[in-house]
Amino acid sequence: MRKNPERRRALIDAAVEVLAREGARGLTFRAVDAEAGVPVGTASNYFSSRDDLFTQVGGRIYERLLPDEATIARSRESLNWLIVERLTLPEIFTEQEIHDLVDVAVRRMLSDD
User: Fold this and answer.
1) Cα separation of 55 and 8, whole Å?
2) Other CB atoms within 10 Å distance of the CB of residue 17
3) Separation between Cα atoms, residue 59 and residue 61, nearest integer Å
4) pTM of the entire structure?
5) Residue 16: CB partners within 8 Å, gap ≥ 6?
6) DSSP string, 27-59
7) 3-state SS assignment for residue 93
8) Angle between helices 29-36 and 50-65 in degrees, nearest 10
9) Which long-range contacts (CB under 8 A, 24 or more apart) does 59-66 make?
10) Contacts of 101 (CB under 8 A, 6+ apart)
11) How far from chain centre, in Å, is Cα 100?
12) What is the rounded distance in angstroms from the CA atom of residue 99 to the CA atom of residue 107?
């Protein structure tokens, strides 16, 4: 398998485009080669099988969907506000709702360490 990371990423990005446009059945090495504008057979030099290609495409889609640090920070601020609201307005929320929210917040804080 080839090791050029830039070419591999370009092929994976091309595969994402093919998958979005053609669906799983249309995701072939030839279709990826055509989308990436590389010679026929290039994708097969970078991926051992179609399953390998799918796996790496899935990983790339996951990377693309990850929020950036600013979005994560805004989400944490929103969560903090929500916790304060729920704790300061207990007559509106059940004890179980408050417990569940605090539990999630604590787990998130611990997972950041």
Assistant:
1) 13
2) 14
3) 5
4) 0.61
5) 57, 60, 61, 64
6) --HHHHHHHHT--TTHHHHH-SSHHHHHHHHHH
7) coil
8) 50
9) 60/9, 60/12, 60/13, 60/15, 60/16, 61/16, 64/16
10) 82, 83, 86
11) 26
12) 12
The predicted-structure confidence for 2-36, as pLDDT tens digits, reads as follows 688 999 999 999 999 999 999 999 999 999 999 99
pLDDT (tens digit per residue) in 75-106: 777 777 777 766 666 667 677 877 787 778 77
CA end-to-end span of the chain, whole Å? 36
Sign of CA dihedral 47, 48, 51, 55: negative
101 in Cβ contact with 82 (< 8 Å): yes
| Encoded amino acid at 57, one letter | V
CB 83 within 8 A of CB 105: yes
Structure tokens at 8: 């591999």
**Cα gap 106→68, rounded to integer Å:** 21
CA dist 55 → 3, 33, 42, 110 (Å): 17, 17, 18, 30
Residue 110 is encoded by which pair of tokens? 């611990």
